[in-house]
# Entry
Amino acid sequence: MPIIQSIERALRILDLFDENETELKITEIRERMGLSKSTVHSLLKTLQLYRYIEQNPENGKYRLGMKLFERGNFVISRLDIRTVAKRFLVHLSERTGQTTHLVILDGKEGVYIDKVEGEQAMILSSRIGRRIPLHATSVGKVFLAFKSKEELAKLLDGYDFYEKTVNTITTKERLMAELDEIRRQGYAVDNQEYEPGVRSAGVPIYNYAGEVAAAISITTTIARVDDKAFEQLIPLLVQVGQEISERMGYGILN
# Structure
C-alpha cells in the first residue's frame, strides 16, 4: 500500500519531541525535517487545529498538544495489566520505600506504563511512556529470558547493543549467558547498566496463557541501598510478581 506523504510528515513532526526536546522552533523543525518553511507551517497549523500540537504563547515554540494525552489515556485504559498491578506496585513501594515500575514489551524496547515513586527514592529519570533498551535493564532482560528460542532470535536479529554505562552488556554472547542465569533464578538484575549509581531487579508477569504479558521492577540507588539490603528486596519482588500473575489468571489452564 502507498504511504500518504502528508500524514507521514505530520507523524514525523510528532516524533521530533521527547523528554529532551519538549519545545521546538519552526526553524528547528524545518531543518530536521528537510522541508520548506511553508510546508512545515501548513503541517503545524493542521496539527494545531486538531490539538495534536500547540504553540507556547510565551516564546512561540511548538510543543505536543493535549489531544495526544487524551488519546494516550484511551490506550492505557485498555491495558488491564495496569489496573491489576497498580495496588501491588503501591504496596511494594510503600513497604520498601523504593520506586516500582510496570513495563510492557513494544517491538524491541520496553515501555514504562506505570510507576510508583518510593519515599526513600531519589529523583530518577524513569517516566510513564519512556522507552528503554532490552539489553541494559532488568525488565528488558526479563522479556528476553522468557521468550521462546524463535522469538528471542527475532528480537536479537540486528539488535543494537549500544553502551549506556561502563557496566552495559555490549555483546550477544554475554547477554545469552546472563539470560541462562535469569531463567534459573527467576529474576533479572540491572547493576548500573542503564544509569550510573542506579540498580534494579525485575520479574516477569504471566497471563492466563502462560505468556509474559509484562514485567515489574524495583529500582534503587547505590548511595542509599547497599548490596545486602538490595538482595533482601528481591524475594519481595518475586512474591509480588507471582501475586500479580495469579490475578492475571496464570495457572488457570495448567
Observations:
- Residues 75 and 204 are 22 Å apart (CA to CA).
